[in-house]
Amino acid sequence: MAVYDGLFRVTGLESWCSSGGPNEGPLTMAELIARANGTQVEGAPAPSVPLMETPFPSLDTLNKSCSSIPRSRDMTQAVEEGFLAIKDPLKVILDPLTQPLSWMLDWSLDGFQATPWFIMIPLLVVIAWFSTRKIGVTVLVALSFLFMAFIDFYDDAISTLSIIFVCTIISVLLGVPIGIAMSRSDTMQRMTIPVLDMLQTLPTFVYLIPLIFLFSVTESKLYGIAIILYAIVPVIRLTDLGIRLVDKDVIEAADAFGMSNRQKLWGVQVPLALPNIMAGINQTIMMSLAMVVIASLVSAPGLGVKVLAGIRNLELGVGLVAGFSIVLLAVILDRSTKAALGRIDSSVRQ
Amino acid sequence: MKKFLITTAFAAASVGAFGGAFGGAAAAQEACEGEIVITEMNWASAAVVTGVATFLMEQGYGCDVKVIPSSTTPALASVAETGKPDIVTELWINGTPAYGKLSEAGTITTLTDVLLPGGVEGWWIPTYLAEEYPELTTIEGLLANPELVGGRFNQCPEGWGCKNTNAGIIRALDLEGNGFEVFQHGSGETMATSIASAYENKEPWLGYYWGPTSILGKYDMTQVDLGPYNEKNHMCNADPDCLDVGMSSYPVGPVKTVVTTDFEGKYPAIAEMLTNLTFTNDQMNEVLAWQESNNASGEETTVYFLTNYSDVWSDWVSDAAREKLAGFIQ
After folding, report:
1. The pTM is what?
2. Which residues of A touch B198 (CB under 8 A)?
């Protein structure tokens, strides 16, 4: 006898309930203690539950009264079985779509790692100079890489850099068009915002573990997907925001000049939205770096591996220094991209 | 009047306190003062061990127990620095250098082996593969047929002791020269998932794993015969700086219940109960297999053990505690 027996009696569902078979759920600790203390005897009516302790009519509680109602664990089991049932067709669809990501990550990693340090570090410094034209940033880039190489973190730093490089490029290439599309349609914005919220808050392991069933765990696209799904959100949101924030009067003026939609987009809206888009790209890079350690949990190479090793071995120094290197990478990428994108943006006067 | 009432109240309270203290002293043999802090490690067998220990302490000895989720390294670090938690359950001492240091310093006392014979570590292949190609359970067969096991060895994540030991065995066998790719996982979760994924798809799999765990309870795996245990080789394999590696199988990994020395002095009766609290590998595997097939939580699995093995655990507790627990013994 349980709390909600009366409900099923009143609604006449008792015969349906008893067709569900005996209630064979595992005992909980509370039931064990109640049974041992003699407060619960098999078959006798349970003592009436005080009003303040009435349990919520959850699946488990209702199952005690009516064994045809599935328990919560049956629901989670059904989700698992559903996934296992659809995983083969899902694999056929998703595998080819995401394979280019694997190739790009692998080639980039091979390329970055194959280049010797005496070519790589000067190359990075030269790129920093020509894109930013700022002495301070260039010196910072040079000193940071020299420091990381000096403390034997060069390989890991370069691996992380290559992963961030590929993931950021893909995030921007996918994110800016999605942001532009969102800015032109309120419906699309309404539909996309919840998806973006979910991408930022859904715990990564929750969807990564099922993905291991679809792709092999050795595929680099696993951590590529993890990083891109998290890091793409800022660039989408801020592109949408930037374009929507363009002054209505300017749009009106553009219309008055007879500009087509495409001309308006690329000639007026995007240039004026550029500060916001740049902020979005900047945030995307930062969030990619934030995901480095989680990416290492799914076998990404780089500084995240050192952080995890430091944590697991309780080598605090290793963890802290590796973490600091990630911060250093973040700072130099932040400064470089801000300076570089600042040169493109016509609204920023040097 | 007010002064009279206050004085009377104080008098009554102090009499009550004294009476309580005297009454309490008589039961101090079994009663616990203060809170006992026990770890619950983040794997399945540890949940059962902690659950059973907590139950016995609360119901049998009337203790106030606080359960702290933890894992090996943080638990020992906390004990070293703060002396809490009091009880560290299921400590796998292989590859835990902090354990030796703390034992020598006298900070911790080892009570017993909580799992007998202990942790089983080694290289595994799925049983369906072993039945189809029995030669894969030997080293020679394995080296000769890399494509039959998928051409890949699943290596432990960075930071695990087994990573070094496996690396030594891999070098000694020249696994990579024989056509194997050594893939280092990022975390234990991806290792477990790769086993599950391979088993669901009936694909080959070769790698390191340990038991008793839910994965080995759920999926039938066969061990690869790594030969006899050679202590010198094994010690060198486990040391990342030692170059003189050689073949050796894994010894049984001792799994200990560890308490702080202070705790042992303060609660000798509980320490004695914890010393008796041991599971055989077979018992633990059976319990974990039940958990898997019933999708049960850690608490429900503890209850399963308590109800089905009451003849086993009733011997662990003192006579007074056994009387209190009489309602649970069947």
Report:
1. 0.78
2. none
